[in-house]
Design brief:
single chain; Gyrase A, domain 2; four-stranded antiparallel β-sheet; 4-alpha-hydroxytetrahydrobiopterin dehydratase activity; EC 4.2.1.96; lyase; Pterin_deHydtase; Putative pterin-4-alpha-carbinolamine dehydratase
Length: about 90
């Protein structure tokens, strides 16, 4: 099982644009239109499937919210940080 990161380990290590929200990390990505957001959501889903680590994805008209946590560890792990960085790369 993956090891939880504590507050000190998270401090300064969150990828650009990501914030901690309890036992999750979250980022809201902005888009000019709905279909661009849908396309990005699909990209995130493909990354998640490849890595077998699935986020919560909330699609809105001009933004997509992505949340990661490692459920079996009960919080944020290195895997969450790595996938958040991959989402940033896809953006």
């Amino acid at each position: 099982m993956a090891e939880l990161l504590d507050e000190d380990e998270l401090d300064g290590r969150l990828p650009d644009g990501w914030e901690q929200d309890g036992d999750e990390i979250v980022r809201v990505y902005g888009f000019d239109d709905y279909l661009s957001g849908v396309s990005f959501g699909t990209d995130v889903a493909e990354i998640a499937e490849e890595e077998f680590h699935h986020p919560e994805i909330v699609l809105r008209y001009d933004e997509v919210e992505v949340r990661f946590t490692t459920h079996d560890a009960g919080g944020i792990t290195e895997k969450d940080l790595r996938l958040a960085a991959l989402c940033n790369d896809a953006y």
